[in-house]
Amino acid sequence: MQNRPIIIGVTGGSGGGKTSVSRAILDHFPNEKISMIEHDSYYKDQSHLTFEERVKTNYDHPFAFDTDLMIEQIKELLAGRPVDIPTYDYTEHTRSNKTYRQEPQDVFIVEGILVLEDQRLRDLMDIKIFVDTDDDVRIIRRIKRDMEERGRSLDSVIDQYLGVVKPMYHQFIEPTKRYADVIIPEGASNKVAIDLITTKIEKILEEAREG
């Protein structure tokens, strides 16, 4: 294993294709020690709130995330030590009591809507990617995902999108585009961008091994 893992940040709006881009990178390196860490795993514990209060949480605001814990755990992984990453229960709207063990790797993809928002997190990254997708495409994907995977009603998804998701995107997420090394329009379907990124990662891995 090389001395220090490569950290790749992947961000963009909800439903913009961040996960697809991250998966495309993962799939390109089947023989490498590479893992994805999702910012969503670090939503704050809300067990002290009533269910009604939890439902009203603004999940697209930086305050919703325990980014301090994420930074602490990434630093542990950079030092070659395993960590226990929290998991989030979307039906109960709070952190679950389960964690998963993440072993050190050669490459980590750090994925989430606000991973470029905190300078301390940005400073740990070797490559910063912003997936830039049209608002219309993102709401359609979000409706489909939240209804199929998270048991939400159409009205609740639309209300949340118009009331919180869209304004938060323009306030907090879109401005982080300026920190990106690479901006990918249309996500994983942009094969040229994926090829450029995976080639760059290969080069970094090779140099690390030779060094």
TrEMBL record:
<comment type="similarity">
    <text>Belongs to the uridine kinase family.</text>
</comment>
<comment type="pathway">
    <text>Pyrimidine metabolism; CTP biosynthesis via salvage pathway; CTP from cytidine: step 1/3.</text>
</comment>
<keyword id="KW-0963">Cytoplasm</keyword>
<keyword id="KW-0418">Kinase</keyword>
<dbReference type="InterPro" id="IPR006083">
    <property type="entry name" value="PRK/URK"/>
</dbReference>
<dbReference type="Pfam" id="PF00485">
    <property type="entry name" value="PRK"/>
</dbReference>
<feature type="domain" description="Phosphoribulokinase/uridine kinase">
    <location>
        <begin position="7"/>
        <end position="193"/>
    </location>
</feature>
<dbReference type="GO" id="GO:0005524">
    <property type="term" value="F:ATP binding"/>
</dbReference>
<keyword id="KW-0808">Transferase</keyword>
<dbReference type="InterPro" id="IPR026008">
    <property type="entry name" value="Uridine_kinase"/>
</dbReference>
<keyword id="KW-0067">ATP-binding</keyword>
<dbReference type="GO" id="GO:0044206">
    <property type="term" value="P:UMP salvage"/>
</dbReference>
<protein>
    <recommendedName>
        <fullName>Uridine kinase</fullName>
        <ecNumber>2.7.1.48</ecNumber>
    </recommendedName>
</protein>
<dbReference type="InterPro" id="IPR027417">
    <property type="entry name" value="P-loop_NTPase"/>
</dbReference>
<keyword id="KW-0547">Nucleotide-binding</keyword>
<dbReference type="GO" id="GO:0005737">
    <property type="term" value="C:cytoplasm"/>
</dbReference>
<dbReference type="GO" id="GO:0044211">
    <property type="term" value="P:CTP salvage"/>
</dbReference>
<dbReference type="GO" id="GO:0043771">
    <property type="term" value="F:cytidine kinase activity"/>
</dbReference>
<feature type="binding site">
    <location>
        <begin position="12"/>
        <end position="19"/>
    </location>
    <ligand>
        <name>ATP</name>
    </ligand>
</feature>
<dbReference type="InterPro" id="IPR000764">
    <property type="entry name" value="Uridine_kinase-like"/>
</dbReference>
<dbReference type="GO" id="GO:0004849">
    <property type="term" value="F:uridine kinase activity"/>
</dbReference>
<comment type="pathway">
    <text>Pyrimidine metabolism; UMP biosynthesis via salvage pathway; UMP from uridine: step 1/1.</text>
</comment>
